[in-house]
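Bumping with the actual sequence this time:
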Amino acid sequence: MYILNKLRNLSGWRSGTKQISIDATIPLISLPVLTLIAAQTIYLTIIVFVVTPIIIYHLHHNFLRFLPRSKFFLMWTITSVVMLMIIFELCVVPLLEIVVEENYVFMAGVVGGIFCGFKTKVKSDSAVQTDNLTHESEVVKASEEICLMCKKPPPARTYHCRTCQTCVAGREYHCRWLDCCIGSNNLRWYLGCLLCSSVAFIYGSNLTMTSVCHPFVLIGTILLPDDCSDVYHQLDLAVCLVSGIYSLLGGLVVLGYLIYHVYLIFLRTTAQERRISSSKNGCSGLLSSYFGNEM
């Protein structure tokens, strides 16, 4: 007990040791384990990539959504980025199949995504968003309705977030992967995060898979992976391949959200407003209702 008390005093936190919830530690353990399992055979790779989203969905539906501000998805994002960077720099780069400039481009995308993601969380303070919009008298007009949760009259195009427990101006949805609401005050940073992340994920995936697989030339100097059947004979190469596939799938999902938000900007609307309009159409709005509430 004396040693534990000394560790609490040396931890640097004023309140002593900082407790980490169980749901936040799951990604720290499960992601590396799943990667090693998927790297054993091609069949296990397929099984892991098919079963994992199903498990995460049931975990969220039956457990995580009842926890206030669960850090599971945020820790999954952080663990994924750190793990992919470590594999790329320690396993892919030493293969000497990519040039220094390509690594610089990849790292620029990673750093840009992390910076924009950090700014997205910093700018997600709904009070700042509301204050900023309140001063724009030409855009915002006082609403006659009162938020039943906040007991305050919100500005126009302001919606309540049940997760953040406050009203958010220009609300798109609550992004669980960044653990913050996306609104008018941080939408630009969020779009920057999506852009940089999609470039880093997809470009890093291409560099990884063309380094461990037999590549072919598509156009000019553009390489794409061709034959990857030999990588499972060596564990480190198989881990690189699994990380490349994971990075590609993540990049495509992020790119899809980027295209979706560009489309919403073109329509001059938000995901929240589309969810509300779609929900009035009955069954056709169920999918939009789910993704409009949180990502």
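The tokens above came from a reply further down the thread. The chain is about 60% helix and 10% strand.
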